[in-house]
Amino acid sequence: MTAKPPLIAPSILASDFARLGEEARAVEAAGADWLHVDVMDGHFVPNITIGPDVVKALRPLVSIPFDVHLMIAPVDPYVEAFRAAGADLISVHPEAGPHLDRTLKLIRSTGAKAGVVFNPSTPPETIQWMMDDVDLILVMSINPGFGGQTFMHSQLAKIERLRKMIDATGRDIPLEVDGGVTPETARLCVAAGATALVAGTAVFKGGPSAYADNIRALRGG
Ligand code: DX5
Ligand code: ZN
What we know:
CATH topology: TIM Barrel
Number of strands: 8
Order of helices and strands: EHEHEHEHEEHEHEHH
Shape: globular
Structural class: alpha/beta
Mean pLDDT: 98
Strand order of the largest sheet: 1-8-7-6-5-4-3-2
Helix content: 25-40%
Bound molecules: D-xylitol-5-phosphate, zinc ion
């Protein structure tokens, strides 16, 4: 059986920040399914990127869902601001606060979908007792903080494990992978059970005229 082509979520972290709006429009026109927004605070991860005002400025320019990946601690005080700015999916790391369940319920209370992000060292069992509270699962195949890193093959077994946990719920929870995704590693992720792929470098390389081909290649041609 051939797996369904994965959803592609270009990470604007790899785009030209001086032309952010045009870049968001270009990837949407090139076939992107979601726009992945990496939010970093220089505290939870060793890099600083963007905040809710940038999400708000981009939101009217494209119509695809905004997949907002929060790499900030604390995270709860900022959830409502990102939702108000236009985030559709909001994902958090369990390590960002002491009460993951409370954070997921807070996200859902705003009307956004609630995602959990797994660092390379975070075990799948972290969400074993809260599958009902999760709308998206995001497996990091790098250490969060920077684009352009190399895919960690050790995470494929975790993707397989989480696939089984999702299937057991009977719910259609997207299983997304983030970090070092290329056409080659994309195939491995999909074979392991991933249904959505974040890609920065692999989408934005070559400039706007290459985006459609880059996205197609990630989907499997
Ligand atoms: C890193 C981010 C990723 C990153 C992916 O912390 O979460 O979304 O931008 O970039 P590539 O695809 O270049 O590995
Ligand atoms: Zn990300």
